[in-house]
């Protein structure tokens, strides 16, 4: 019996020892998991940063309920001290990060983890109000000012907003309902707006349900918008995808956009305000874009184009179930110009119009516009276009005594729908030529024969923004 008891005691001690060792190993492993976990990632960018921090380091809470506006503001304020020391990056880890508007800084990168979601606050007090843009003179929704965009910045250099396809969700239905009910005193906010800035990169993100426009660089230069997915209900109001506005040297590429308005809307100010401000959008590259927007255009030039739009090059574009391809919108009183526009390799499926230009797009900023301010529309080139299931080939309407000139269409095949409009083309107050266009165009666009198929060739030179090469950036961030 005593022997048996001794064996039992020994066994008990062994079991206790094993449990203690196991707990120690588990505790050690858990401690290593908590204290020594390292998040590492790589991405391509205009510039890499010397310093990094996580939003969690500044009290951020990713529960989808707690406001993180102050956490973003505190983090960016702290990181601003590194602007002259190699710049800084703010990492947004996995979670749902509710926030109101916050402003970014120069030499700065905002990086969203693939499972990070920024949620636009529905507390209207978290959206400060700005004055109207000087080239517009008023807000788009209301005559007064405008709510600051979710991510905002002005007078900056070297700003990167990117991620591993992380998400920015504007929670638009709240704003759309207020807009439809006429309850908003100010223009709805955008998701991203950078003003008077240089060297901008916006890439590898998903943008959902913006209150209004999604991406709005304005009065800025040297911009790359790349690898962006934009999604909003096709009936949502004014959810334009990407709106370069009075910008120079811009590259938009590899984007997928489903929206309730134009997928890309090129702008430069509104009526007398845009004329006076006088800053055109020019040297714009758009390529490898896929668009779905049943009530709007794949690419719209205007209608706010009073500062001018020139040297736009769009290629490798696909439009599916979209109202029109490249649409020019202007009117008497706009002034300005749209010229030197080049489009090629355009594929369209299920469209209302393949081509649409209009000189009677009203919607003036106020009654003070100059009725003698006529826009100049010239040198508009489309080639290598294929479309199917199209209701009407083209609707081309210039302005009386101010015709749209230099229109060129070559190597264009448009397959009409089962029930097309009886008149395949309507043309008024335009001048131009065609070559190899089906169905046969209107008399104002005479066919020059197959030998003129290269008449509207794409420019062979490249723009400066096309020469920009990205760097490979690498970071290791310890996360609590």
TrEMBL record:
Q: Where in the cell is it found?
A: Secreted, Cell wall
Q: Which residues form the signal peptide?
A: 1-31
Q: Which residues form the Rhamnogalacturonase A/B/Epimerase-like pectate lyase domain?
A: 56-100
Under the heading InterPro entries, the entry gives:
GH28_Enzymes, Glyco_hydro_28, Pectin_lyas_fold, Pectin_lyase_fold/virulence, RHGA/B-epi-like_pectate_lyase
The molecular function terms of the Gene Ontology recorded here are: polygalacturonase activity
**GO biological process terms held by the UniProt record:** carbohydrate metabolic process
Q: Which UniProt keywords apply?
A: Cell wall, Glycosidase, Hydrolase, Secreted, Signal
Q: What is its main location?
A: secreted
Homology family: Belongs to the glycosyl hydrolase 28 family.
Q: What is this protein called?
A: Rhamnogalacturonase A/B/Epimerase-like pectate lyase domain-containing protein
Q: What species was this sequence derived from?
A: Acacia crassicarpa
Phylogenetic lineage: Eukaryota, Viridiplantae, Streptophyta, Embryophyta, Tracheophyta
């Amino acid at each position: 019996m005593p022997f048996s008891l001794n064996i039992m005691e020994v066994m008990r001690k062994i079991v206790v020892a094993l449990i203690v060792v196991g707990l120690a190993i588990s505790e050690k492993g858990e401690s290593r998991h908590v204290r020594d976990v390292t998040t590492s990632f790589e991405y391509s960018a205009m510039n890499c940063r010397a310093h990094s921090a996580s939003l969690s380091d500044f009290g951020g809470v990713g529960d989808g309920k707690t406001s993180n506006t102050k956490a973003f503001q505190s983090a960016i304020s702290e990181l601003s001290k590194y602007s002259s020391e190699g710049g800084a990056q703010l990492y947004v880890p996995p979670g749902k990060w509710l926030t109101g508007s916050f402003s970014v800084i120069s030499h700065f990168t905002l990086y969203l983890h693939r499972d990070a979601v920024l949620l636009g606050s529905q507390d209207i007090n978290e959206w400060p109000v700005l004055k109207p843009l000087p080239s517009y003179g008023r807000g788009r929704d209301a005559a007064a000012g405008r709510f600051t965009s979710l991510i905002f910045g002005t007078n900056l250099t070297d700003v990167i907003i990117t991620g591993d396809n992380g998400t920015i969700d504007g929670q638009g239905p709240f704003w759309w309902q207020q807009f439809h009910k006429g309850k908003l005193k100010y223009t709805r906010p955008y998701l991203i707006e950078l003003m008077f800035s240089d060297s901008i990169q916006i890439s590898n993100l998903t943008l959902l349900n913006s209150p209004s426009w999604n991406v709005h660089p304005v009065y800025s230069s040297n911009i790359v918008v790349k690898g962006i997915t934009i999604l909003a209900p096709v009936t949502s109001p004014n959810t334009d995808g990407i709106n370069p506005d009075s910008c120079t040297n811009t590259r938009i590429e590899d984007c997928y956009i489903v929206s309730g308005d134009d997928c890309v809307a090129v702008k430069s100010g509104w009526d007398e305000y845009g004329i006076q401000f006088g800053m055109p959008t020019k040297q714009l590259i758009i390529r490898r874009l896929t668009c779905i927007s049943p009530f709007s255009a794949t690419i719209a030039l205007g209608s706010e184009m009073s500062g001018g739009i020139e040297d736009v090059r769009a290629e490798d574009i696909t439009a599916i179930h979209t109202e029109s391809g490249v649409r020019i919108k202007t009117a008497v009183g706009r002034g300005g110009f749209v010229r030197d526009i080049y489009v090629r390799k355009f594929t369209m499926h299920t469209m209302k119009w393949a081509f649409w230009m209009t000189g009677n797009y009203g919607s003036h900023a106020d009654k003070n516009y100059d009725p003698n301010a006529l826009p100049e529309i010239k040198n508009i080139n489309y080639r290598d276009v294929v479309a199917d299931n199209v209701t009407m080939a083209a609707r081309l309407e210039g302005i009386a005594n101010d015709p749209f000139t230099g229109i060129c269409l070559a190597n264009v095949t448009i397959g009409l729908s089962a029930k097309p409009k009886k008149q395949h083309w309507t043309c008024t107050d335009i001048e131009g030529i065609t070559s190899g266009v089906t169905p046969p165009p209107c008399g104002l666009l005479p066919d020059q024969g197959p030998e003129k198929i290269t008449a509207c060739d794409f420019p062979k030179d490249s723009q400066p923004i096309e020469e920009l090469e990205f760097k490979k950036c690498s970071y290791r961030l310890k996360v609590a």
